């Protein structure tokens, strides 16, 4: 089980990303627009830098929804390999059977 503080920090980041997504996209569009003047692009990049760092989507990290484990994460199932094995062994994932011989 992951530390509760790390899971809560990740949730806080998700909220910030959602809150600033529209503003960040607009500023990025201006900063990357080749037709805009150099001054406008520079001002947009400065405003982008003033936004909170945790509002960037690249700072998000996938975590298992059951345990909060950040490594060995299966995107399709949104769980870690350990929980996948445990749930598969218990027959709680439809269509999955853990083989043993």
UniProtKB/TrEMBL annotation:
- Check the record and name the InterPro entries matching this protein: Ribosomal_uS14, Ribosomal_uS14_bac/plastid, Ribosomal_uS14_CS
What residue intervals traverse the membrane? Answer: none
The organism's superkingdom is given as Bacteria
Any one biological process term the GO annotation gives = translation
Mention one GO molecular function: structural constituent of ribosome
Question: GO CC terms for this protein?
Answer: cytoplasm; small ribosomal subunit
Ordered alphabetically, the record's keywords are: Ribonucleoprotein, Ribosomal protein, RNA-binding, rRNA-binding
Primary role: Binds 16S rRNA, required for the assembly of 30S particles and may also be responsible for determining the conformation of the 16S rRNA at the A site.
Q: Quote the subunit structure annotation.
A: Part of the 30S ribosomal subunit. Contacts proteins S3 and S10.
Say which family it is in.
Answer: Belongs to the universal ribosomal protein uS14 family.
- Specify the protein name: Small ribosomal subunit protein uS14
Q: Which species is this record about?
A: Ketogulonicigenium vulgare (strain WSH-001)
What's the gene?
rpsN
